[in-house]
Amino acid sequence: MSNNGAGSSPKLRREAGIIGLLYASLGAIIGSGWLKGPLNAAVHAGPLSLFSWLIGGGAILLLAVVYAELATLFPRAGAVVHFPRLSHGSLLARIWSWILFLAYVSVAPAEVVASLNYLDVMLRRFSIHWIPPFLYKGADGAHLLTGTGIIIAIALLGVFTLLNFLGIKWAMRISNTAGWWKLAIPLLTAVMLLTAGHHWQNFHINPADSRSQIEGIFTSLSTAGVLFSFLGFRQAVELAGESSNPRRNIPIAVVGSVLIGLLIYLLLQAGFIASVDPHTLATTGWAKLTTAGYLAQFGAAPLAAAAQALGLIWLTWILYVDAVISPGGTGFIYITTSARVISAMGSDGLIHRVFTRLSRNGVPWVAGILAFAVGVIFLLPLPSWSQLVGYISSVSVLSYGIGPVVLISLRKLMPETQYPRAFRLPAAHILAPVTFIISNLMIYWSGLRTLGILMIALAFIFTVFMAWRLINGLSVRALAWRSTWWVLPYFLGLLLLDFIGPHHLVGGTNLIPFPYDTLVVAAFSLAIFYLAVHSTVSVEELETYIATQEI
């Protein structure tokens, strides 16, 4: 193993083609979300859950096209780490690198937990008792990992990490092979549930439930895994530095993956709604659907339970097999890109440069080991899929919500006459602030508890960083405060909005009711957006940084 600083040392290899990038993003989108999301969304919003997928997919599509322009402007592995550095300097880049780090390394554990959910149900379904259970039901009804489950989950994360050491070419081959399966099985499942279930009366909206289900459209975005599912689009962005033709491949991969994923999820949600037994639904309602009947017994594997209830035993077996392939493939992809993000942090001086070291196959192997180690930690305090997903959705949208700010800032700092764009977002001065508003609404709807945990984690990391600088005699004043000061009112403002928001929606104090809280969040977002855009680094600072980079 050697560092990547010498001329003879290994380099990231540009071996990822358009199909590989498309399947990397699509494979991350079609992960555990499709196996568990339809039930969770239906519990929150009933038949209106279809609108959750439309809103979530539309919001992520806006983010995707923003990053399509940024990625083609700066095609580099782990490029998302560098974008804030270009527009707002090293301090903002450091803060957002922490957010990105927390967002990426937590996904693979969530995918592994989803796989073990289905595997545990299969073992109980077929009375295989010689293998200890992987799950137990917590006090709140969530399916949590047992000690055995945690050990197996750690082993699976280790397998994903070792496979990544084969190199990006092999990673893309594995992704492409799994990609065909991951497309075919969800589509097959959706069609079979629609045709075998055909309980079209389930799409009727009960007026008594309409208000709670309308609010459920928004709460399910974070808590049911809707946003979590679509955030896989970013894989192609992170692998831009290993693409054979990034200026052509990246826009097609990020936009195409979101559109295909949206179609699949809409069909799956409709199929699940049509498959629910109307008699069970009349007894429990959508909100308590998991408390009675077949879903109470096998709720950790809802699609398999639905297929079995409809007599589709063969499909049940396929779903059990897919419960290993789909989340496993997505976990593998996220281990791949997590290592690239960590390596990018090292190359930009945001963490120690040891994490930039590449193997002979051009793989950032030290970064891969770190991604595995931190992923293991996430399995311990947050061992249920729903707990992990709520956290990941919030931190991931926060990490990507900076994109619209960076896009407009770089339009000002890096004019197209000097830095031509292979892909240019039309009407960016309208779409960028709208996207920023939508991103903040997604964060807001994740709730006060989730956002509070995230902010506490960031405050802790920032305190440790400042203490480290003081202990080592490094200047605090030398940090890029002028271009980063707006982050403090941004983060505190998001917390305050959740605190005064509706209790039943975000866990707040009901000072601002729904839907007026949405207007307040939008106004706040616009104010922060324009503060941020007017707080960029100078052109001279940017040009100095660019001179040291391969842009």
Beta strand count: 2
The percentage helix is: 55-70%
The portion of residues forming beta strands comes to: under 5%
Q: Into how many domains do the coordinates divide?
A: 1
Q: What is the alpha-carbon Rg in Å?
A: 23 Å
Please give a handful of descriptors for the protein shown.
single chain; 551 residues; two-stranded antiparallel sheet; 25 helices; 69% helix
Summarize the structure.
With 551 residues, this protein is an all-alpha fold.
Structure description:
Helix content is 69%, strand content 1%. It has one domain: Amino acid/polyamine transporter I, CATH 1.20.1740. Helix 5 packs antiparallel against helix 18, helix 6 runs antiparallel to helix 18 (385-401) and helix 18 packs antiparallel against helix 20. The protein has 25 helices and two strands. It has helices spanning 18-29, 33-45, 49-73, 79-88, 90-105, 107-125, 147-164, 168-197, 210-223, 226-230, 234-238, 246-275, 278-284, 293-297, 302-309, 313-347, 365-379, 385-401, 403-413, 428-445, 448-471, 487-500, 503-506, 516-533, 539-546, and strands at residues 135-137, 143-145. With 551 residues, it is an all-alpha fold. A two-stranded antiparallel sheet has the order 1-2. Mean pLDDT is 81; it is low at 1-15. The longest helix is centred in the middle third of the chain and has 35 residues, at 313-347.
